[in-house]
Write a structure and sequence with these properties.
The complex is a heterodimer of chains A (397) and B (256). Chain A has 397 residues and is mainly α. Helices cover 69% and strands 1% of the residues of chain A. In chain B, the strands form four sheets. A four-stranded mixed sheet of chain B has the order 8-1-10-9. In chain B, strands 2-3 form a two-stranded antiparallel sheet. The chains are: A mainly alpha (397), B alpha+beta (256).
């Protein structure tokens, strides 16, 4: 590809990203002007589609850093050249996710209040500190990687980033884990579940971006590298599925949770459909098949599997966040309940365009930051070995 | 690179670094200064605002007698709407600070009707989760939302086990001077704090008494001689979701 054509394509891609960002900002302005009445959210489902996008990006931001950790903390040579890209993606996804979260606030104009008033018993307040800290630590980590004189501190910064991101994803899981009121949440399991989900989602995003980057630069990813990373994605996807299964099995075992589980797993219409069809089949079984079946495994299958993992992530988050709120609060156990405020009734929620545009705006921010970063600085992974069929890679994960 | 060019490049680099450092400091200053200014204003406003604080010796409570609460009567709801300037037309996006709930025991078929509102917990989950501290509990047990610091994150709505919080979905007009409300903030029953602070009782309690039901009793749970203290001492009453041990200020009689 000539550099001129590549340049033209870059600006075309950037323009699409910028349009997504503009769409998101426009939607946020529209929501700010008219209030959340223009969204599908209600007093029953107060967190809607923007939260699905935001939490996906924040969780994936933490997980995508896994690639850097495996390289610089655990010393795996295959992952080391990928550490800068991993750091950049972490920052880009975090920025995109936080933009969506902030612009979905009822009063986004009061960000200064959120930055100056901390209630330290609130997981949300912890997360404000954790997210800002993550930006600083990953920026520092990238600096130690790029500045030759700082290279010797790269491992220390990597360890710090690894520890911080574990705490960060624990914090994200605990946003729900600390909710005593609702049957869908309030479980310590949600912290480790979110950590393992972050591994799978982050690596899936990384593989998609890495494929795009190699295609863009007309390079072929070493097949051994590709195989190793694909296998690791498979392990993460299977581990995440195991924890999701354990959460539901535990819940099914308790009689008081039976109605909720029946709703999520069987009777809840769109929710069981998304959980089984979207998450279990399309987002877990299909990727596992594509990654591990001897006849299917290959670069294209790995890319498709990664895309399906992302799709499954959105399906799972939709069920987890929206389904968890749609099921009524049990204020009177053992009673049939009705009121003008939706007591005892399954809440209806249909996302509307401004919510979707806001969520896509966050994706646009992540895309633009990544594209510009990759263009301006050298984030392209450089493997020391060249031959595509080089066989084994020493010490790979 | 020759030594001269090398030195030149180094000087240029150091000049660029100095410029970047200066620019970063300037940008940081511009970003932080308004925040510091706002914090000063906010802190300056606090002493005056808290001068007439709630009485810590009082613990306001509400006892609801479900045996006296009439099915089909919603005088308490109407009174709340009128007192606080709420839209009387219920919808999934409207604010409902108090609502009548019809319950029917599945095993026995026994039906009851009762009002549910903020339970003014001693250990309120909404206060715990609020990132800015906008959700707070007064010294006299009344749980409120500071409309100046609520950012509209809705985490308290997620955390409340009683569905007692509402998010304002639309721009509002014609608010009552005593009841600050606004789009994008979360709100809930204030126990008519503006009336209580003047020695009155909540509008719902007054309306229930006016209708002759006397199903709601308001008073100081810390005063052993108050009517509410005597009733909760002598009769079987219970909080909603007793399993959560939130120490609610609202209790129910005749339930279960």
């Amino acid at each position: 590809m000539s550099s001129r054509l590549r340049s033209r394509r870059f600006y075309f891609g950037l323009a699409i990203g910028a349009l997504l960002v503009l769409g998101g900002l426009g939607a946020a302005h529209y929501m700010e002007e008219h209030g959340h009445i223009v969204t599908g959210m209600t007093n029953q489902v107060v967190w809607g589609l923007p939260h699905v996008f935001a939490i996906f990006m924040i969780v994936a931001a933490s997980g995508v850093l896994n690639v850097a950790s495996i390289g610089s903390v655990f010393g795996q040579p295959l992952y080391k050249p990928r550490a800068p890209l991993s750091g950049l993606l972490c920052l880009a996804l975090l920025a995109g996710g936080l933009m969506v979260l902030m612009l979905d606030l009822g009063r986004p104009d009061r960000m200064i209040v959120a930055a100056t008033h901390y209630n330290l018993s609130s997981v949300f307040a912890w997360n404000v500190l954790l997210y800002s800290g993550m930006f600083a630590i990953v920026a520092l980590y990238l600096w130690t990687m790029f500045e030759r004189s700082m290279n010797r501190h790269s491992r220390t910064a990597g360890v710090l980033a690894l520890a911080w991101r574990f705490v960060l994803t624990t914090g994200t899981g605990l946003i729900f884990g600390f909710l005593v009121a609702r049957q869908a949440y309030g479980s310590a399991m949600l912290a480790p579940l979110f950590i393992v989900l972050s591994f799978a989602w982050g690596l899936a995003v990384f593989l998609i971006v890495q494929s795009a980057l190699y295609a863009w630069n007309a390079q072929v990813l070493d097949s051994a590298v590709q195989r190793r990373m694909a296998r690791l994605l498979g392990v993460f996807v299977a581990a995440a599925f195991h924890l999701v299964l354990v959460v539901h099995l535990t819940s099914l075992y308790f009689a008081r949770q039976a109605d909720f589980e029946a709703f999520i797993l069987r009777d809840g219409g769109v929710f069981p459909l998304l959980l089984w069809g979207g998450y279990a089949v399309a987002g877990t079984l299909a990727p596992l098949l594509l990654l591990f079946h001897p006849r299917l495994a290959g670069p294209r299958s790995a890319l498709l599997a990664a895309a399906l993992v992302v799709l499954g992530a959105f399906a799972w988050l939709y069920v987890f966040i929206i389904g968890g709120q749609a099921f009524p609060l049990e204020i009177f156990p053992g009673y049939a309940v009705s009121s003008s405020f939706g007591d005892g009734a399954i809440a209806h929620y249909a996302p509307r365009l401004p919510e979707l545009l806001l969520g896509l705006g966050g994706v646009g921010v992540a895309f633009v930051l990544t594209a510009v970063g990759v263009r301006v600085l050298d984030f392209m992974p450089k493997d020391d070995f060249a031959a595509p069929q080089s066989g084994t890679v020493k010490g790979a994960a | 690179m020759t030594p001269d060019r090398d030195t030149g490049a180094r000087q240029a680099l150091s000049g660029r670094r100095a410029f970047l450092g200066l620019a970063a400091t300037a940008v940081g200053g511009v970003l932080i200064a308004p925040g510091i200014h706002l914090m000063e204003i906010a802190q300056a406003a606090v002493p005056g605002a808290s001068a007439a604080g709630a009485n810590p010796r009082v613990h306001w409570g509400l006892l609801i007698d479900t045996t006296k609460c009439a099915t089909g009567c919603d005088d308490c709801v109407s009174a709340c709407n009128t007192e606080n300037g709420l839209d009387p037309r219920p919808s999934p996006t409207s604010a409902q600070w108090i609502r009548k709930v019809e319950i029917k025991e599945i095993k026995t078929g026994r039906a009851q009707s009762l009002p549910v509102m903020c339970q003014h917990c001693a250990e309120p989950p909404c206060v715990d989760v609020c990132p800015t501290g906008a959700s707070f509990k007064r010294a006299d047990g009344i749980v409120l939302v500071d409309r100046h610091t609520c950012i509209g994150c809705r985490y308290c709505v997620m955390a409340c086990p009683y569905k007692a919080r509402s998010f304002v979905h639309e721009p509002l007009t014609g608010q009552k001077p005593d009841v600050p409300r606004g789009k994008g903030c979360v709100e809930g029953c204030t126990l008519c704090v503006h009336r209580v602070d003047k020695g009155g009782s909540p509008a719902c309690v007054a309306a229930c008494a006016k209708a002759g039901h006397h199903a709601m009793l308001f008073g100081d749970l810390n005063d052993p001689a108050s009517a509410i203290s005597i009733r909760v001492r002598e009769l079987a009453t219970s909080p909603l979701r007793a399993d959560l041990k939130l120490g609610t200020g609202v209790r129910y009689q005749g339930l279960g």
